[in-house]
Write a structure and sequence with these properties.
Blueprint lengths: L21 E6 L7 H5 L4 E6 L4 E5 L17 E6 L2 H4 L11 H11 L8 H38 L3 H6 L20 H8 L1 H22 L28 H34 L3 H26 L14 H22 L14 H29 L11 H29 L10 H8 L1 H33 L16 H15 L4 H26 L12 H34 L1 H14 L15 H19 L2 E7 L1 H12 L2 H4 L2 E6 L3 H8 L1 H4 L1 H10 L2 E5 L53 H13 L29 H11 L1
Parallel strand pairs: 1-4, 1-5, 5-6, 6-7
Antiparallel strand pairs: 2-3, 3-4
Helix pairs in contact: 3-4, 3-12, 4-6, 4-7, 4-8, 4-11, 4-12, 6-10, 7-8, 8-9, 8-10, 9-10, 11-12, 11-16, 12-13, 12-16, 12-17, 13-16, 13-17, 14-15, 14-16, 17-18, 19-20
Length: about 800
């Protein structure tokens, strides 16, 4: 794409009209695809990008800008492939273990829309960040429970258990309390601290590596829109897709919180023994110093997390070096001193029972419940300032999602602890096992599954009723009549009709997702509170030490505990197995990638250990490309997005300079912009935000089907040329066999929108509606207009450069 187009005689500027050149920038959706499939050509070439995300064209279109006559009346297709950002190499399968962190990060962006409530908005974000902090502490505490309590404290301190596991022999004490140097409880705890410390270090490393690869991609520099066209989305702010500073701050705080959790698990037992044993005064003093340092470190972490440290109104390139270095290093130094303190010789110290895990996990559960309830109150207050019936759960979608993140963290914690305890203990009762609270939490899993079964049955019945209603609508859509006197091709095929109606009914169940999430979140909160109350009130596992007074109740409690324990462990094993399978199987990895496509669109604003935000790479890629191409050619551009690609397309359009945005048409199909994102993320994709996007781009058209469980209408008002939504496309294209469709047409649902003839027609209409008076390509050396961005890479994207890039990549 040269900056100037030359004629064949004098090398002067070609006076061709600017609207003769058109580009269709295709953005695929969830699950990913190949450039060959997107461009419908087996011969493609990469013109820009790398192995992670890149732009592709057909080989014959590589130098299309030099041959405008060959593309008169049709656009040049160009595919942006970003699927490797989420489902690339096998290591991304390990992100399954970060699922609770991803879910709580989603809750941060689900804040309801509000008017004139800045303090409440900040309070909501603060509460969600604190919930994320408790999840980090919970995960590290689970590792401490397994390594320190079950292995080093209980099994290594019990002769029968240590004899069963020879690898613990050097840590075990004899029947009379004698043993080797490592047999003292404090030294065993100090050595076992390697496991949770390694876990914390791994989380820090993964976050730092993805931080360098994702958050370091700078978006296109621009100023915030200053027009009077009404409210817009925050996704258009210059610093929205550049969360480098915030993620660095949160990573330092969460890493320090993990290391402080390990210090607490190692040091509190030693300090408690020193206070009660009447040992040396020096050790007692060191114990109090340790407690004070631990409290000071925890307070510092809370303060750092409380400060958001993110500026969306400008591109914030600063990094808080002091916090980034001092906080984790200080926590690591405290851990090292704590290990030395615990390893001090205490000959009379013997391990018995459990470490105080019930207090730890019970406190975490209470704090999480209180934070979720406070977030719900704040979210409800925000919703009342600007109520919108389409908002999920009337503004409570974020707190309900945060509750699910806590539940996932609890399932993973209980699953690991229960399975490790069963493995160490074998068939006997040689060790006390995991904390009572984890067993009580396992016992509430069966009631929760019963609730899920009831909800599933409700959805099945509702789908059946909707299917019956859709049968008549299908006949009307295809202009058929259910008349027994009709014969041959005019008589409806009832099996075909029911398949189409059933597909439509099942697709409509997506709109019931808020009800499901709300019900599961409320039941989870209630059952979790009952588990905490039962554990603290009885101090024993459900059904244990039964006296036979209430045999039915006691039997049910024992059965629920046993079944729940196995279900929790099975769930965790399935999670790990899925990750391992995805590591080896590309198709499974792509399936898991669909989950990340939806869940990791948003920047890491609540939890730094969540999987990285791919949009912080994809959105700058698209904006740089659009700004560079329109400035270099002055041509027309259709931004064509399918499914999640339509969300990326909208976010990229918001990031463009207004002058460039007015030269872009938006074509979306199978789009969840309103159906999912508008309901769950009303601040950024609500009616006002989507209406502003409609005003700011030159034109916008949206295609959807009633058989699509993901895509749906945008729902913006408008008439004629200003109407965004095309009437729902028929799916299948033909009811029976026709001359054009001699074989039965498939029900496409969410896929292959380009197969519908309407797609090409709507794309042509968008190209025709784009303003023909778009500016000509700017001569070299001419200054930019005030506020217009200069895409530094545009000059390097000439046809010659593209050709060489394509040849090197091919």
């Amino acid at each position: 794409m040269a900056h100037e187009q030359h004629d064949g005689e004098g090398g002067g500027r070609n006076p061709r009209r600017a609207d003769e050149t058109a580009l269709e920038l295709l953005v695929h959706g969830v699950g990913g695809t190949t450039p060959e499939a997107m461009l419908d050509d087996p011969r493609t070439v990469r013109i820009s990008g790398d192995d992670t995300s890149a732009l592709f064209r057909r080989v014959t279109d590589r130098d299309a800008e030099k041959r405008p006559d060959d593309y008169r009346g049709k656009p040049v297709p160009e595919a942006y492939v970003w699927c490797n950002l989420t489902s690339g190499n096998g290591s991304r399968a390990l992100w399954l273990l970060l699922l609770p962190f991803m879910v709580v990060n989603l809750a941060h962006w689900m804040r309801p829309n509000a008017r004139q409530k800045p303090k409440a908005v900040r309070l909501y974000g603060l509460l969600i960040r604190f919930i994320g902090l408790t999840l980090t502490v919970l995960l590290v505490a689970a590792a401490c429970e397994v390594a320190l309590d079950l292995a080093a404290w209980q099994c290594a301190g019990t002769v029968a258990c240590a004899e069963r596991h020879s690898w613990l022999g050097f840590l075990a004490a004899g029947p009379d309390g004698s043993g080797g140097w490592w047999s003292q409880p404090g030294r065993r705890l100090a050595l076992a601290a390697i496991v949770p410390t390694a876990l914390t270090t791994l989380l820090w490393y993964l976050s730092h590596r993805t931080w360098s690869a994702y958050e370091s991609q700078r978006p296109l520099p621009h100023e915030p829109d200053a027009d009077d066209s009404g409210p817009t989305s925050a996704l258009g702010k210059p610093g929205f897709w550049y969360g480098r500073r915030l993620v660095a701050r949160l990573r330092a705080a969460h890493t320090a919180a993990g290391l402080l959790t390990v210090s607490a698990a190692v040091g509190t037992s030693a300090a408690r023994y020193d206070r009660g044993s009447g040992g040396p005064a020096l050790l007692n003093l060191l114990g109090w110093i340790f407690v004070g340092a631990l409290i000071a470190g925890a307070a510092t972490v809370v303060v750092v997390v409380a400060r958001r440290g993110r500026s969306e109104n400008r591109l914030d390139t600063t990094i808080d070096r002091t916090v980034l270095r001092a906080l984790p290093r200080g926590a690591l130094a405290l851990l090292a001193l704590t290990v030395l303190y615990a390893a001090w010789s205490r000959p009379g110290w013997q391990s018995a029972g459990r470490l105080p895990g019930d207090t730890t996990f019970g406190g975490i559960a209470l704090v999480q419940g209180a934070l979720v309830l406070c977030a719900a109150l704040v979210a409800r207050a925000l919703y009342r300032t600007a109520p919108d019936r389409r908002t999920a759960l009337r503004g409570l979608g974020g707190p309900a999602t945060a509750m699910l993140a806590c539940a996932l963290g609890g399932v993973m914690t209980g699953g690991v602890a229960q399975r490790v305890a069963d493995w160490l203990d074998g068939t006997g009762h040689t060790i006390a096992g995991p904390p009572v609270l984890l067993t009580w939490q396992a016992s509430v899993i069966p009631p929760l599954l019963v609730v899920l079964a009831v909800l599933g049955a409700y959805l099945a019945v509702r789908a059946l009723r909707m299917k019956r209603q859709e049968v008549a609508q299908v006949l009307r859509d295809y202009d058929l009549h259910d008349d027994a006197d009709l014969q041959g091709e005019h008589r409806p095929d009832h099996a075909r009709t029911e398949r189409i109606a059933g597909t439509r009914a099942r697709a409509a169940l997506t709109d019931r997702a808020p009800m499901m999430i709300g019900a599961v979140g409320a039941v989870t909160l209630l059952l979790g509170a009952l588990a905490v109350a039962g554990a603290w009130a009885t101090g024993k596992v459900p059904g244990a030490a039964a006296d036979g007074t209430y045999p039915i109740v006691e039997g049910a409690a024992e059965a629920a505990q046993a079944l729940g324990s196995w279900l929790v462990g099975l769930g965790f094993i399935l999670l790990v197995t899925s990750g391992r399978r995805a590591y080896k199987d590309a198709s499974a990895r792509r399936t898991i990638g669909i989950l990340w496509d939806v869940g990791t669109f948003w920047p890491r604003a609540a939890h730094p250990f969540a999987p990285p935000c791919y949009a912080e790479r994809a959105v700058p890629d698209l904006t740089w490309r659009m700004a560079g191409w329109t400035r270099a050619t002055g041509g027309r551009l259709v931004l064509s997005g399918h499914s999640q690609g339509s969300v990326l397309a909208a976010a990229a359009a918001w990031q463009l300079h207004p002058a460039v945005r007015k030269r872009v048409a938006l074509l979306t199909y199978g789009s969840p912009l309103e159906r999912l994102y508008g309901r769950w993320f009303p601040v950024h994709f609500g009616p006002s935000a989507l209406a502003s996007l409609h005003r700011q781009v030159d034109c916008w058209r949206n295609l959807y089907r009633r058989t699509d469980p993901i895509g749906g209408p945008i729902g913006l008002p408008g008439d004629g040329a200003e109407q965004v939504d095309h009437p729902a496309l028929l799916d299948p294209l033909a009811y029976g066999r026709t001359e054009r469709h001699p074989l039965p047409a498939p029900i496409l649902g969410h896929s292959d929108y380009q197969a519908d003839p309407v797609f090409a027609g709507e794309r042509a209409r968008l190209l025709a509606r784009l303003r023909p008076e778009v500016p000509q390509p700017r001569p070299e050396g001419e200054p930019l207009a005030e506020g217009e961005p200069r895409p530094d890479g545009a000059a390097h994207e000439s046809g010659e450069a593209q050709g060489s890039a394509g040849r090197s990549s091919g």
